[in-house]
Amino acid sequence: MDNWRKNPVVFWLLNVPPTFWLVVFFIVPLTLIWVLSFGEKRGVIDIEITWTLDNYIRALDPLYLEIFWKSIWMAGLATLACLIVGYPIAFAIAFAPDRWKALLLLGLMVPFWINILIRTYALIAVFRTRGYVNFTLEWLWERANGLLSWIGLGDWHLLGMRYEPLELLYNNFAVNMGIVYAFFPFMVLPLYANIEKLDKSLMEASLDLGAGHWRTFVSVVFPLTWHGALSGIIIVFIPALGAFFIPDLLGGTHSELIGNVIERQFKSANDWPFGAALSFLLMYATFGALALRALVAGRKPGLEV
Amino acid sequence: MIKRCRSRVSRRSFLAGTGAVAAGLTIRPKFSWGAEAPELSFYNWDIYIGETTLDDFKGASGIQVKMDLFADNDELFAKLKEGNPGYDLIVPTNDYVERMIKAEMLTPLDHAKIPNFRKNVAKAFQDANFDPGRKYSMPYMWGTQGIGYRKSKVNGVPDSWKVLLDSDEYSGRIALLSSASAVIGMGLKYLGYSYNSTNPAEIKQAEELIIRQKPHIKVFAEDNGQDLLASGEVDLTMEWNGDILQVMDEDDDIAYVVPKEGSVVWQDCLAIPVGAPHPDNAHRFINFILDAEAGAKIADFIQYATPNAAARKLLPDDYNNNPAIFPSEETLARSEPEIYTGEASQRLRDEAWTRILAS
């Protein structure tokens, strides 16, 4: 494109669709919401734009800051879990024989062909009191008890009188599991892309020169692949921060996240200006995180977004 | 028996449709001056009319009814917001009746053309807080919010909000609706106040009550309390009667009761939207529906509570005495429909609800 000045017509024509897209589907709606965040409610339907800051001041109430903080904490925890589980899996795929690679990647992606809402409902069937995890554990409990009876220890009730189902659903654990499950591939794919490109001879050299596996990972592999990890962290953390239907469906009485508060402002509470202000605060926080990433990553070559 | 499988999600999003982008068409049929053509366009919920009602009406009046279906109040509201696309008769729920009156979307009714209203409808339904004097709406069917429970796991009949809101007897086995208006409203009811209270001190008291009870509540359910009850996840749930009726069909161990402190009642109403091409025919059809025999046929088929006292006399005991359809007269007298209480009060309730969830 170094000679685009010679063909300005072609250049501008090529730019029409992306510009149209950016303006109509991004800038215009975002501006509308931004303007709305300076509005005041006047009645059931009427909103007057008065450029008041009341919505933002209200959003900075400790009540909402606490929920913000909780959301950041939950999203961070889920991201960390994705990272810890994602690294070995990305490694396994990257080092698998070529004919397995495609299959393994497919295995990672296929669940994504199913709507996220349906997959979240499926998690309910897995985790609930009379769900598949508890059914499996109960079956194992019965087998173990049978074994104990068989060796003559049945009267001692070593495993309790009856199986007590685990409470896996309707708590923050379930919400975290839901978020991890929903966004896990977003972590694995950029990691995989980076590890794939890693020069394997560097690892062999490290191992040959006497470094252990852990040392090799910390000193060689991680510094060479952490851009992938950073990308994964960003694209898992940001949607996790705005999650609302996962806590709605899987959460208990203590699982309200900022996404739920925003959703309610646009629905049952019918306070669009306040919802808009909360959304923009969330977006500013996201911009902050992205800026931090740019700062940390610097302008080193090989940066993957 | 087929029952209308009706999502009450829309009820939670009270007022949510205000911002919905209207999908309304602006094609209006030509107005015919003078006598109306013998036709009527009826916009109704699915499985919400008698099997033969439309044919019976045609036989009695010669008017051909064409029925379209909507899925929830938001859809109905959005369709009519930008102008009536040609409907003569609609069936909004009480909170939407109120909104549509405020937005001047309904035509005043001529009570002289609906003699069956005074003659057949129960006294309790001849007036309404959401439509004083029933100038714009006629009652069609109604229902309640109450407690669905598993009989084998609960001692006796849990006929007080106390078991859900102020007791550890069923700790960890309770689901409440995830709805500010329902949970705070029932708290207010239990404390002896109005469901629609706008008094900040009373709302605060209800908030504190729920926060105290929180450790014993398993989940604020997203309108799936009946599934939680059916799958054994909880043994008591706050729900709409229609939802519990569905699972009662499949599971004899499930029952429904409206607590003695009273509850919230919903009411689906017949109303004529502004711009209806055949208002006279609509009046005739309303009068026909409020007839004893026609009303009885509808109620017998859809199994919802009818406000038509004359129709109830024609119906069997297993309908009239079903506590999941009809609460007792005293309980009903203590219940009230939800009304729009203004922006300040809406905000008060939403903030209380946020604190309840965050605590």
What attributes does this structure have?
heterodimer, A: 305 residues, mainly alpha, MetI-like fold, two-stranded antiparallel ribbon, 12 helices, 2% strand, B: 359 residues, alpha/beta, D-Maltodextrin-Binding Protein, domain 2, 6-stranded mixed beta sheet, 16 helices, disordered N terminus
Topology:
The complex is a heterodimer of chains A (305) and B (359).
Chain A: H1 8-36, E1 39-41, E2 47-49, H2 54-59, H3 62-94, H4 98-109, H5 116-127, H6 132-150, H7 172-197, H8 200-208, H9 213-241, H10 245-250, H11 258-266, H12 272-297
Antiparallel strand pairs in A: 1-2
Helix pairs in contact in A: 3-7, 3-9, 7-9, 8-9, 9-12, 11-12
Chain B: H1 9-12, E1 39-45, H2 53-61, E2 64-70, H3 73-81, E3 89-90, H4 94-102, H5 115-120, E4 138-150, H6 162-165, E5 174-177, H7 180-190, H8 200-213, E6 217-221, H9 225-230, E7 236-240, H10 241-250, E8 254-257, E9 265-270, H11 279-289, H12 292-302, H13 309-313, H14 317-320, H15 329-333, H16 343-358
Helix pairs in contact in B: 7-8, 8-16
Strand content of chain A: under 5%
* Residue-averaged pLDDT of chain A: 88
Outline the low-pLDDT stretches of chain B. 1-33
Shape of chain A: globular
Helix content of chain B: 25-40%
**CATH architectural label of the largest domain in chain B:** 3-Layer(aba) Sandwich
Counting helices, strands and paired strands, the structural category of chain A is mainly alpha
Q: What's the helical proportion of residues of chain A?
A: over 70%
Oligomer classification: heterodimer
Under CATH, the homologous superfamily of the largest domain in chain B reads Periplasmic binding protein-like II
**Global morphology of chain B:** globular
CATH class label of the domain at 61-128 and 168-297 in chain A: Mainly Alpha
Task: Using the CA coordinates, give the radius of gyration of chain B.
Answer: 21 Å
* CATH fold node name of the domain at 61-128 and 168-297 in chain A: MetI-like fold
Query: What is the end-to-end distance of chain B?
Result: 44 Å
CATH superfamily of the domain at 61-128 and 168-297 in chain A: MetI-like
